[in-house]
Design brief:
This protein has 306 residues and is an all-alpha fold. The protein is built from 13 helices and no strands.
Length: 306
């Protein structure tokens, strides 16, 4: 029973990285912009956050550095695709490749660095409850922050005027422009907000989840987060649920290895990516369902007056 509680706790921890990145990409795509550079942004943010934590000893500053790095890269991406009308897919892939190489170069001096003892967190009283306390209430505050963020984003998109405007820009930028809304600036703000969340996910990975710096440590999580937005049909609550699903699959491989299951470790390491492919294959069997939920202008450039 205790092993199950620990597995659930590890699932929440692992899923938080995907949840933060997935929610950020959902904001991007709700505005009509698709950013394939999540992997690169998360890598740059991971080394920015880790280097800041090593230098200052402050996790808060590390998270701020990661979010800032993600927002900066996303801002550059946004200017290229929104104002210069470069291809969103090609620009995103270039950002991902740049982030991978740049983070590896900058991180050379931090490979051997180690952070100090990580603080232990527990919710008073609730953490003492058998099983539930172990599974749910010994988490880093950012784990609960991701849950609150999903709820806040759902309210923002479906209950607030600003969220309605954002969705309108993603559905029909021409109509939003005709009503007087600054479509390009709204899209840039959404792209940078999404980049900041991807950066926060990268910093959480290197400062809390690991905590260390290794070249390429994001290990495909950015691509899984991209798939997660489609899997969740662009709904915040479903992104959160999907993130924990993939987080559980990730931790299951370690659980099986620890119990000595006679399966090659390479197969176990493939589990999260196989799960991603299976989910995408299943949902792609109903393309009408995807089209109904997908923002109508996703991936399409917009030029005022065209």
């Amino acid at each position: 029973m205790n092993e199950l509680a620990l597995l659930l706790a590890a699932t929440l921890n692992a899923g938080t990285v995907l949840a933060l990145a997935g929610l950020g990409l959902l904001i991007n795509e709700r505005s009509g912009i698709i950013n394939l550079g999540a992997e690169g942004m998360m890598l740059v943010a991971a080394i920015a956050g880790f280097a800041t934590a090593v230098s200052t000893g402050s996790d808060v500053l590390a998270f701020a550095a990661g979010a800032g790095a993600g927002a900066l890269l996303a801002g550059i991406f946004g200017v290229l695709v929104i104002w210069l009308n470069t291809n969103q897919y090609a620009t995103g892939l270039a950002l991902s490749l740049f982030g991978s190489g740049f983070s590896a170069f900058v991180g050379i001096g931090f490979v051997q660095e180690r952070l100090g003892e990580r603080a232990k967190f527990a919710v008073p009283y609730l953490s003492d409850i058998p099983f539930i306390g172990t599974a749910l209430f010994h988490q880093h505050p950012l784990v609960y922050g991701a849950m609150l963020l999903a709820a806040a984003l759902a309210w923002f998109l479906y209950r607030s005027r600003a969220g309605l405007v954002l969705r309108a820009v993603g559905e029909s930028p021409e109509s939003a422009h005709a009503l007087g809304y600054p479509v390009r600036r709204i899209r840039l703000a959404a792209v940078m907000a999404g980049g900041a969340l991807c950066g926060l996910a990268g910093a959480y990975l290197s400062v809390i989840y690991t905590p260390l710096w290794v070249e390429g440590m994001v290990a495909g999580r950015g691509w899984i987060a991209l798939a997660l937005t489609t899997f969740a049909t662009w709904r915040p609550a479903r992104v959160l649920l999907g993130a924990y699903l993939f987080g559980g699959v990730t931790m299951l491989q370690f659980q099986l290895q620890g119990e000595g299951v006679q399966i090659p470790s390479q197969w176990l390491s493939m589990l999260p990516y196989l799960a991603t492919i299976v989910v995408l294959v299943l949902i792609s069997r109903n393309p009408t369902w995807i089209r109904v939920n997908m923002p109508a202008s996703l991936g399409k450039p917009f030029t005022p007056g065209s």
